[in-house]
Design a protein that fits this description.
13 helices; 325 residues; TIM Barrel; alpha/beta; three-stranded parallel sheet; 2 domains
Length: 325
């Protein structure tokens, strides 16, 4: 199955990013707050029983250790999410803006690589711990050990967008399969959307994003009526304003090889502040920096990351080059 992976909407915040950030905060901060409260109650109960009534409660030590491990992992998730994790601020503070950006990018990449390396071993360890129970409460030790892979997954997690071109073989089946398997954690959608009927089919298949190669306000409005994100194509300022008026969430500058970073920079001067423009077509590692400097919020990547017949190793190498661009 051929599919494009469209670069997300960054660095400018978007409704999608805000929703995902809110979801991650709910997943991490809500349980963390409850864990703090539970830890206080358990520790207070254990200390009171031990020193006031001289009757130690062994189970409080077991429960407190489990709660503490989960609290530590969720706390690290929250710290990373808020950019309040431990770092050499004295050194970073003396760097130039460009140096800080490069250092932050390198640090984020290092964290992601480390977490991805840890996950398989953490999962294996958590699975093996199922056969061990705590002496007092009889709780499977997996509930303690699972804090590691869960916390690592949350820290490493971002959001991914998978776009299935409608000119690929049996695209609706591909969208349905992807939505069923990954819809709860990936944004699944379709590209090369040409008609309102296709928008309805995409929504029925479980897609949540439509990307068009052209400027058609009717398709954008159809997508918004169905609660889908819409990223229509455009090439002129008139088309850009028309798509924004129709409710577009972002704009796809297409074909980008027929435009230039200078053209994007000039258009962004007149487009509403915060408008996200994603160049698509002819984008690769050699020209991403110029487009980004002109204000590109992201990119649509197709053959630069995958061509039919590419092996996983080839795709991984292409992805590495794109990340470093």
């Amino acid at each position: 199955m051929a599919h494009d992976i469209s670069a997300g909407i960054a660095p400018a915040p978007s409704l999608l990013a805000a929703r995902i950030d809110g979801l991650l905060r709910l997943i991490a901060e809500g349980p963390a707050a409850l864990l703090v409260l539970a830890e206080i109650v358990v520790l207070f109960t254990g200390v009171t029983a031990r020193y006031a009534f001289h009757s130690p409660l062994v189970w409080t030590d077991e429960l407190a250790s489990i709660l503490f491990l989960w609290l530590a992992m969720l706390g690290s998730v929250i710290a990373l999410q808020r950019s309040e994790h431990m770092r050499l601020t004295a050194i970073i503070g003396g760097m130039s803006a460009a140096g800080r950006a490069r250092t932050d990018a390198l640090a984020s990449a290092a964290v992601a690589i480390f977490l991805l390396m840890v996950l398989p071993s953490a999962w294996e360890y958590a699975s093996d711990e199922w056969f061990i129970e705590t002496p007092a409460l009889g709780i499977h030790n997996t509930f303690r050990a699972m804090a590691i892979p869960v916390g690592a997954a949350l820290e490493a997690g971002g959001f991914a967008i998978v776009e299935v071109p409608l000119n690929s073989p049996d695209p609706m089946a591909s969208i349905a399969a992807l939505a069923a398997e990954f819809g709860d954690r990936l944004l699944i959608g379709a590209g090369t959307v040409m008609t309102e009927a296709q928008v309805e089919q995409i929504a029925a298949a479980g897609g949540r994003l439509i990307v068009t190669p052209h400027a058609d306000p009717m398709i954008v409005r159809a997508a918004k009526r169905l609660g889908l994100l819409a990223v229509p194509g455009f090439f002129t300022p008139a088309e850009a304003f028309a798509m924004l008026a129709a409710g577009a969430d972002a704009l796809k500058l297409f074909p980008a090889e027929g435009a230039s970073p200078a053209m994007l920079r000039a258009m962004r001067a007149v487009l509403p502040t915060g408008t996200r423009v994603l160049p698509v077509g002819g984008i690769d590692a050699s020209n991403m920096a110029a487009w980004r400097a002109a204000g590109a919020a992201g990119f649509g990547i197709g053959s630069a990351i995958y061509k039919p017949g590419d092996t996983p190793a080839i795709v991984a190498e292409k992805a590495r080059a794109l990340r470093q661009a």
